[in-house]
């Protein structure tokens, strides 16, 4: 079995920052693996550890700088990685459809049985790449998965999942492989890369691919979305702090909620 | 964290990743609870196997057959630095396990001893401790009274050791004692399993420093060990002293970590805390403190990096390590106090790290060769005259 995990290096912004044009000034950015992808990697590695002969491959769209982040995923147990980059991809913002087209080309080459993505990326937060990819490759999918029955998947080739819906509702679904699952935080506890894993990762492959290598052209990745402006919204805060025992504060909270019209009478 | 002259930019990828994984572990697994452990005087024992799993014990030693990795000395130093940014007690546990227990077994042990202990110690399935200091012999360990008397193919050990990090939770102790059955009573190293008859490992309570660390004694009352438990590869004080050089190397790095954590805490506080209508960081008196702190940390950091280079290429002398241990721990001890000052009254609570570091550093200043003894080691090296001999 082969599992493909899409991963992304995202920029994390410090608490205090300055805007430069349509982005945050580089000085206030730190790059790290997208938090959701960390859970997707962990789920894939747990699957690999539970089964026999399961290969976990990660794929990312990103410049050479991203290799260290990808290497961390390799240190956590991913077997090998693919990094797609091209001058044509060096745009302010890659929209979901563009990313799905690039990943589709990789999927056609790798033919994975299961594709895991994070629910969303911490920077652009579209939350749609996984589902767009499933649509693009014509596979079944389940989004916002917070539980996956690994034993069932290995035995039956079916992903038995819990999906998180709005309002605390969960959906239990069976999805036949091949499929795409978008993984929610909290599904597992991502491991730390061990020093042994870090050592082993130094000799694992990160295969660079250009668009041409994937049979794509610059015209295939023309994003239809672009950033026009970046600004800090005005923020207003109106916080009330209750002090006292649980009983007192609960009563105060209840009266405020009633006042504001929250909850049924 | 403060890296003013970008030393970390020159690390190789493996070193940076080791730093990152250690930093993340400290941030998530140590920092949230360490204040409570410190107050309660407990060591977070659940971290012992976790740190083993991550490869935090003696990763700089070579030997694939014993689950050892042979990472660079810089990577090992970075690991100690990050752990001590969490707490000196955590770093001490890893230092003792790696530099004072695994190192002597690796350097002086038999193949059987290595095979029995190194993989288990590396994985954190077994805990080790190091018995050198005695109640009456601290700075002058060569006057030790612990004795081993040969009896057929066994040795009978008697004596007492104190200020032993990890002893109450240890499975094995590396005990240094004089072999009274051999000519000139040479110092030998013995692997003493703590469940042997006659071994006691009383805990030392009432510490006001290094509270999130377990410290105890080792009592040896007619303890019999087979001769296979003697470390075959070394005789004399160079045995224990060579271990201490390894551990002090880690301390020189660790102190930088504690100081950096103090600095970052103080800088954050100074920019957040508002008095007289603005952040206190705008006052020259606070800026002067931060500037001095950053400068002292950076020079200590440079010394630690240089030490790693010398160690890597085999040119490190114990006196180099004395200078770095002496300088860096003093620096961290002084700067922790400055950081505490900057935090005002909030600084005396367990909510902030500087006073905990400051108090830990009193121990670090004194253990593994006191500050004053390292001064005399340097004095001897510079003049050729030993001030501490008769």
TrEMBL record, chain A:
Organism listed in the record: Halobium salinum
Residue ranges of every copy of the Electron transfer flavoprotein alpha/beta-subunit N-terminal domain listed in the record: 21-218
Keywords for the protein's UniProt record, in alphabetical order: Electron transport, Transport
Family named by the database record: Belongs to the ETF beta-subunit/FixA family.
InterPro entries named in the record: ETF_a/b_N, ETF_b, ETF_beta_N, Rossmann-like_a/b/a_fold
Secretion signal span: none
Keyword Transport part of the UniProt annotation: yes
Lineage of producing organism: Archaea, Methanobacteriati, Methanobacteriota, Stenosarchaea group, Halobacteria
Designated name of the protein: Electron transfer flavoprotein subunit beta/FixA family protein
Statement: the UniProt record of this protein carries the keyword Transport: yes
Automatic annotation (TrEMBL), chain B:
Pathway: Amino-acid metabolism; lysine degradation; Amino-acid metabolism; tryptophan metabolism
Domain Acyl-CoA dehydrogenase/oxidase N-terminal residue range list: 13-125
Enzyme kind, highest EC tier: oxidoreductase
Catalysed reactions, as listed in the record: glutaryl-CoA + oxidized [electron-transfer flavoprotein] + 2 H(+) = (2E)-butenoyl-CoA + reduced [electron-transfer flavoprotein] + CO2
Annotated SUPFAM superfamilies: Acyl-CoA dehydrogenase C-terminal domain-like, Acyl-CoA dehydrogenase NM domain-like
Ranges of residues in domain Acyl-CoA dehydrogenase/oxidase C-terminal: 236-380
Cofactor (UniProt): FAD
UniProtKB keywords: FAD, Flavoprotein, Oxidoreductase, Transit peptide
Pfam families, sorted: Acyl-CoA_dh_1, Acyl-CoA_dh_M, Acyl-CoA_dh_N
Residue span, Acyl-CoA oxidase/dehydrogenase middle domain: 129-223
Gene Ontology terms, MF aspect: glutaryl-CoA dehydrogenase activity
InterPro entries in the record: Acyl-CoA_DH_CS, Acyl-CoA_Oxase/DH_mid-dom, Acyl-CoA_Oxase/DH_mid-dom_sf, AcylCo_DH-like_C, AcylCo_DH/oxidase_C, AcylCoA_DH/ox_N, AcylCoA_DH/ox_N_sf, AcylCoA_DH/oxidase_NM_dom_sf
Enzyme Commission code: 1.3.8.6
The UniProt record lists the keyword Metal-binding: no
Family: Belongs to the acyl-CoA dehydrogenase family.
Protein's UniProt name: glutaryl-CoA dehydrogenase (ETF)
Organism: Halobium salinum
Biological classification of the source: Archaea, Methanobacteriati, Methanobacteriota, Stenosarchaea group, Halobacteria
């Amino acid at each position: 079995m082969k599992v493909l995990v899409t991963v992304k290096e995202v920029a994390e912004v410090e608490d205090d920052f300055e805007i430069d044009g349509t982005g945050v000034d580089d000085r206030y950015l730190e790059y790290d693996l997208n938090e959701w992808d960390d859970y997707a990697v962990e789920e894939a590695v747990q699957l690999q550890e539970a089964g026999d002969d399961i290969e976990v491959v990660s794929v990312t769209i990103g410049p050479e700088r991203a290799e260290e982040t990808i290497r961390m995923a390799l240190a956590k147990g991913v077997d090998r990685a693919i990094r797609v980059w091209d001058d044509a991809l060096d745009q302010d913002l890659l929209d979901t459809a563009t990313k799905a087209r690039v990943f589709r080309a990789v999927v056609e080459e790798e033919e994975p049985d299961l594709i895991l993505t994070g629910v969303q990326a911490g920077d652009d937060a579209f939350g749609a790449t996984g589902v767009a990819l499933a649509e693009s490759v014509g596979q079944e999918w389940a989004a916002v998965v917070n539980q996956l029955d690994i034993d069932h998947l290995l035995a039956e080739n079916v992903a038995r999942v819990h999906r998180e819906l709005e309002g605390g509702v969960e959906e239990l679904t069976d999805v036949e492989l091949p499929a795409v699952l978008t993984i929610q935080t909290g599904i597992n506890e991502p491991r730390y890369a061990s020093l042994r894993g870090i050592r082993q990762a130094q000799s694992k492959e990160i295969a660079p691919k250009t668009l041409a290598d994937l049979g794509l052209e610059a015209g295939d990745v023309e994003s239809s979305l672009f950033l026009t402006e970046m600004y800090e919204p005005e923020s207003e805060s109106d916080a009330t702090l209750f002090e006292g025992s649980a009983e007192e504060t609960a009563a105060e909270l209840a009266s405020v909620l009633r006042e504001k019209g929250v909850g049924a009478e | 964290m403060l890296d003013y002259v970008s030393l970390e930019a020159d690390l190789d990828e493996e070193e940076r990743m080791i730093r990152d994984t250690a930093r993340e572990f400290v941030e998530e697994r140590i920092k949230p609870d360490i204040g409570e452990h410190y107050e309660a005087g407990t060591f977070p024992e659940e971290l012992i196997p976790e740190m083993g799993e991550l490869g935090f014990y003696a990763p700089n030693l070579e030997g694939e057959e014993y689950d050892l990795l042979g990472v660079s000395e810089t990577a090992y130093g970075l690991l100690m630095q990050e752990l001590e940014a969490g707490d000196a007690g955590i770093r001490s546990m890893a230092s003792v396990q790696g530099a004072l227990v695994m190192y002597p077994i690796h350097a002086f042990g038999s193949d059987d001893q290595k095979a029995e202990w190194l993989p288990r110690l590396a994985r954190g399935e077994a805990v080790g401790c190091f018995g050198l200091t005695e109640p009456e012999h601290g700075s002058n360990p060569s006057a030790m009274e612990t004795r081993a008397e040969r009896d057929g193919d066994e040795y009978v050990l008697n004596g007492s050791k104190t200020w032993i990090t990890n002893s109450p939770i240890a499975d094995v102790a590396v005990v240094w004692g004089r072999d009274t059955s051999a000519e000139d009573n040479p110092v030998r190293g013995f692997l003493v399993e703590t469940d042997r008859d006659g071994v006691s490992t009383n805990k030392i309570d009432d510490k006001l420093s290094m509270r999130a660390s377990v410290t105890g004694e080792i009592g040896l009352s007619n303890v019999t060990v087979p001769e296979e438990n003697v470390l075959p590869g070394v005789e004399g004080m160079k045995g224990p002293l060579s271990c201490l050089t390894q551990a002090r190397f880690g301390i020189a790095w660790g102190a930088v970590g504690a100081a950096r954590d103090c600095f970052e805490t103080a800088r954050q506080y100074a920019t957040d805390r508002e008095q007289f209508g603005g952040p206190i960081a705008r006052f020259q008196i606070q800026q002067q403190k931060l500037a001095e702190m950053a400068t002292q940390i950076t020079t200590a950091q440079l010394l630690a990096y240089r030490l790693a280079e010398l160690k890597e290429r085999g040119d490190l002398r114990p006196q180099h390590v004395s200078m770095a241990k002496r300088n860096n721990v003093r620096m961290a001890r002084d700067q922790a106090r400055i950081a505490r000052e900057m935090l005002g009254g909030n600084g005396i609570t367990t909510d902030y790290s500087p006073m905990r570091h400051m108090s830990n550093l009193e121990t670090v200043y004194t253990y593994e060769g006191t500050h004053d003894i390292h001064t005399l080691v340097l004095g001897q090296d510079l003049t050729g005259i030993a001030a501490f001999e008769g």
